[in-house]
Structure formats: C-alpha cells, structure tokens
C-alpha cells in the first residue's frame, strides 16, 4: 500500500533537488544578518513571555535557527526530510543530533504541545494544497503557545512555476488560512521583509498565539 504522505513534493525535497538546494542557500554573513534583523522583530512580539523551546518545520541547513541562536537561549529543534541537510545541522552545531528530526510537516514526531513555538519559513509554499491543512494541523498540534508563519503572500491561491517545475510552489494568504482554520489563534503581529532592503525575497510573516 502506498503512503499518502509520500507526496511528489516530499520526494522532490528528499532527492537531488533538495541536496542542490543546500548549496544554493548556504548562509552568508549578509544573509544571516538580514535573518537576524527579521527574527529580532518577530521575537520582540513575544518579549513578555518568550518561548523556551522552538521547532522549525522544514529547516534545511538551519539558516533561521542560526539567526535565532543569536537572539534567544531557547532549546532549538529542526524537522527536515533531507538527510544531507540534517547532517549539516548537526555538524555545524545548529542543533544537537537528537534535535535534528527526520520528518515532514504532515507527520511531526513530537507530542502535543511539546514545544513552545513552532514555525515555518518558506515551507508551506512548497506543500501541495491537498496536504496543506493536515500540515498546518500538525504544526498547531505540537506548538504549545506560539505559531509563526513566514511565507510568500498572495491574496488568492496560485501555483507558481519553480525552477522549471510545476506543482512545487503555491502562494496564498497563509495568515488568513491559519485564522480561518484554528479558532484558538490570535494575531500578535505581522510584517513584511522587503527584498529591496533586506535581500530576503519579499517574505510576509505572522505571529500567532494560542488562546487558552
């Protein structure tokens, strides 16, 4: 029996394309500085009650986690389907080996509320719409307090060809989808990283808090 979670998109990132992505996205000093600036704004939203544990879903080699390490003493976890990227995470000391988890958004090997904060950055855009809600439910499930979403924005769902491939990049209003799907979420803040000034590829971010 085939595994319904073993999607074409997941195979894409576990294979050669995912390995090539590692080289294209090596963390330069300038890029890391821009990530730190973006995450400083995001983490400032939680300054009164900062997360003590953070999971990045779809971390690749951990450019976001590297930035977060300069801003927080929280315990960091990475979920990544590409084995080569996980090895880089461990070799570079971004996370301990036990915190470099083999997995993907639709099936996170963590207990409910195991981390204070779970986030994606440029990951939901690569999940097929058929698997998107199940992935968001998993992110919501493992996050005890905060959900952060950093993605490309479009006011309507659309598929964008990605490096010569169809069905590999999907833009939409992810913030509204979170609010429409989970009644216990409230928006703390949102913002935009303009590529012209930041080099971060026009990223929209949302910070949500779970209401008890």
Give the arrangement of secondary structure elements.
Blueprint: H1 8-14, H2 16-24, H3 29-44, E1 53-57, H4 63-69, E2 75-79, H5 83-91, E3 100-101, E4 115-121, H6 129-142, E5 143-151, E6 158-159, E7 170-171, H7 174-181, E8 185-193, H8 195-198, E9 203-210
What do you see in this structure?
This protein is of the alpha/beta class. Helices cover 35% and strands 23% of the residues. It has eight helices and nine strands. The strands form two sheets. A seven-stranded mixed beta sheet has the order 3-2-1-4-5-9-8, with helices on both faces. The protein has a two-stranded antiparallel ribbon with strand order 6-7. Strand 2 (75-79), helix 5 and strand 3 (100-101) form a beta-alpha-beta unit. The protein starts with 7 loop residues before the first helix and ends with a strand.
